[in-house]
Design goal:
The complex is a heterodimer of chains A (117) and B (117). By secondary structure, chain A is mostly beta strands. Chain A is 0% helix and 52% strand. In chain A, strands 2, 5, 6, 10, 11 and 12 form a six-stranded mixed β-sheet that branches. Classes of the chains: A mainly beta (117), B mainly beta (117).
């Protein structure tokens, strides 16, 4: 069974500083994908970044980067130069290999990030 | 980018009534739609996977007769909460994979907040 663990219920960061949100996962499938989503108070789910299990390099998308450590099964999200608008709930999610159907995305419990001016 | 439109965004109903939530993929065909449920300050829990032209696949513990899912076309999936009760009050959100995206990116609707009195 797969499992996504986010151990930080809440995080605080000063504006313009960097912050790391932790995510560990557990799967026996060699092929999987890892996602990070942002959910502001409005409820919408905003895709941030994706890392494939076979990707050689860590994914980056603007101020977001994913610190992928495959042996440790961790996929931490790093947000550089935090902005007030980054305050939201952040979810790590995992999808296992496509196997004849569109596999479901399983979410972690989430981390609430608060950015202070 | 791809858009998933979800309606209504907010609904209040009396206990015992049924509520229908619609999700439409506006500029792509969604042969699959995922339906999630989210309680306050909790993660997204997958309820079911709907597939165009076939029966939905429900996750363990989700009542099929309670949560009716219909995926009648390539652009529309509906979730009907039948005989709603206060414990069904929750945030419901749909998502659909974009097949041509490099990571089979999921696009989410904006969610529906259901309150059952």
């Amino acid at each position: 069974a797969q499992k996504i663990t986010q151990t930080q219920p809440g995080m605080f960061v000063q504006e313009k500083e960097a912050v790391t949100l932790d995510c560990t996962y557990d799967t026996s499938d060699p092929s999987y994908g890892l996602f990070w989503y942002k959910q502001p108070s409005s409820g919408e789910m905003i895709f941030l970044i994706y890392q494939g299990s076979y990707d050689q390099q860590n994914a980056t998308e603007g101020r977001y980067s994913l610190n992928f450590q495959k042996a440790r099964k961790s996929a931490n999200l790093v947000i550089s130069a935090s902005q007030l608008g980054d305050s939201a709930m952040y979810f790590c999610a995992m999808r296992e290999a496509f196997s004849g159907g569109y596999n479901k995305l399983i979410f972690g419990a989430g981390t609430r990030l608060a950015v202070h001016p | 980018g791809a858009v998933v439109s979800q309606h209504p965004s907010w609904v209040i109903c009396k206990s015992g009534t049924s509520v229908k939530i619609e999700c439409r993929s506006l500029d792509f065909q969604a042969t699959t739609m995922f339906w999630y449920r989210q309680f306050p300050k909790q993660s997204l829990m997958l309820m079911a996977t709907s597939n165009e032209g076939s029966k939905a696949t429900y996750e363990q513990g989700v009542e099929k007769d309670k949560f009716l899912i219909n995926h009648a076309s390539l652009t529309l999936s509906t979730l009907t909460v039948t005989s709603a009760h206060p414990e069904d009050s929750s945030f419901y959100i749909c998502s659909a994979p974009l097949l041509d995206s490099p990571n089979e990116k999921l696009f989410f609707g904006s969610g529906t907040q259901l309150s059952v009195l």
